[in-house]
Amino acid sequence: MRSSVNRLTATIFGAVYLLVGVLGFTVTGGVGFFATEGGLLLGIFEVNPLHNIAHLLIGAALLVAGLVSVVAARTVNIIVGAAYLLLGIVGFFLAGSALNVLALNTFDHFLHLASAVVLLGIGLAAERGVTANTRTA
Length: 137
Prior knowledge:
- The protein has 4 helices and 2 strands.
- It is mainly alpha-helical.
- A hairpin with a 3-residue loop joins strand 1 (39-41) and strand 2.
């Protein structure tokens, strides 16, 4: 894993997003599952229970992929990065509306965009020649 940027990135991001998902539940007591406004994680990131579960699922996918292989890590980095890019952009339009079922706020949007840049950048640029038939690092 030390020689694979994709595996290291997926593993670290996975562990962080799992931690964020767990910590999110400490601030969402009494918050509705699909509430458009939630508790504040670290005092700035708005979350609701659905948002916490999304963090747990994304964290698990990244962590498992990072532990499995370079191909898996690269693939999941690209998929999650693309999803976060979309969410980061669309989130600006959802905030303040009934469609904001993840209780997103401006800080969330920028964090999602930053995650997208890192995950997509590494996923698309690093280890491009690696395929399922290539030895895992």
